[in-house]
Every structure is written in structure tokens, then in C-alpha cells.
Amino acid sequence: MIRPAAPTGGARITAVTSGKGGVGKTFTTANLAASLSRLGRRVLVLDADLGLANLDVVLNLPAKVTLHEVFTGKARLEEALLPAPGGFTALLAGSGMVEYSRLTPEVRERLQRLLETVRPHFDHVLLDTGAGISDVVLYTVSLADEVLIVTTPEPTALTDAYATIKVLATTQGRRELRLVVNQVQKAGEGRQVRAQLQQVVDRYVTPGLDGPVRLDFLGEVPADVSVRDAVRRRQLLLECFPGSSAAVAVVAVATRMAD
């Protein structure tokens, strides 16, 4: 059920995206949502990977009513808003829906209208986008107030993260992008990754733009066997291993987001 509008007039919409798959974007999004909920925020996670959704797998929620049913008029929006583990609300998407693999005027309009509808009723809306820079991903990101990029220190992940930053800076005018580095092997590695990416952005992206592109480092999440175990259990890390190093790190990132 949609709750009363936030006193501030609406949620801050954050697109959580990545240059490539396999960096832990959806798992990070879900646990950030749980952390924000624990801080007293009203949070909605929208699975915006419309054709290859897997938020339902991470949360172990049956996808009986999804965005597809809402978009096609087979269900009301209120029926698709599900209480998720961790105290937040989830809006799931269907998987294997080929009609959402390309951006059509209908998809654009439905997504925009959906966000306009839910925005007044939450404090945070997290858009768990697909990976990469397809038209659907870029349009979804364009609807957000801010962008959070999740990457790992692995070279191909960094290359794709840079490509994403470049596209968002040049096509959407993004001048500040937030960064979380996942699966770090040692403390401080995330800041090194941020510095490395910032250096490349300063050299190859900022010249010619109307202002510098800044990467706002929100934090690093260490490689932790608890994450693997939580994924296998299909549970939130904050629910089953709240004291793990990765869980503590995610809470720290969420606290910075809230501030």
C-alpha cells in the first residue's frame, strides 16, 4: 500500500547502476535499502532491469505481480508494491520480457509516470538498473536525481565503469556521480580505485565540458564470504550476517547516502 507523502514533498531518486554485470549491484542495492530503512527512511526499490530482473531472487520474493502487469493494466500499482525483508518496499520486474529489451515511447512514458506516482510516498527510491549503457538503462538513469555506480577493482569492471561515467557526463550532463567499490581485497583499495578513475576522467572526459566531473566516493565493501553465503540463502546480508565486515561497510555507505 502507498503510504502518505513525505513531508519534504517526495523521494530522492537514486539510480544504482554499473558498467558490467557481476559486480554485486542488485545485492548492494537491496542491502542499502535495508540500511536506509533502519535509519527510519521510507524506501522503495524498483527493479528497473526490465527484461532481466533478479531482485526477486535476491530477496526471495515471489514475482506474482510485477511492473509488466502494472504497465499492461492487468494489476494496480498498489498490488505490485511488496513488503520486502529489511523493512523496505519492492517493486519487481518480469524476467525474459523481450518487449522491454528496447526503448519504446510506451516504455518511456510508463516509467516516467510510475516514478511520478510513487515519488511523493517515499523518502528514497532506488532504481536497480540493468548493467551497461543500453538505451533502456540510460533512459532509466536519466529519470534519477543522482547516480550511484557500483564497480569492483577488477580491470574489466573499471573499464566499463569509466565508459558509463563518460556516457553519463557527455549525454546527460552529469557532473557528480557517486561511487561504491565492491569486493575490495584490502582496506583503502576503494579510494585508490576512485583516484584512478578520477584521474582518467579528468584527463579524457572533463576537457571540452562546461565543468569538471566529480566522483563522490561513498565507500568500499570488502570481499567477504558472508556475502556468498547470504546470496546462496537468498537473504539480505544485514538480516543473516549483520556483524560481518561487508554488512558494516554497507551500513556506512547508507549513512553517507542519508546525510
Automatic annotation (TrEMBL):
Q: Does the keyword ATP-binding apply?
A: yes
SUPFAM superfamilies in the record: P-loop containing nucleoside triphosphate hydrolases (SSF52540)
Entry keywords, A to Z = ATP-binding, Nucleotide-binding
**What Gene Ontology molecular-function terms does this entry list?**
ATP binding; ATP hydrolysis activity
Pfam families attached to this UniProt entry? ParA
GO annotation (BP), single: negative regulation of cell division
Pull one GO CC term from this UniProt entry: cytosol
- How is this protein named in the record? MinD/ParA family protein
Q: Which organism is it from?
A: Ideonella livida
What taxonomic ancestry is recorded? Answer: Bacteria, Pseudomonadati, Pseudomonadota, Betaproteobacteria, Burkholderiales
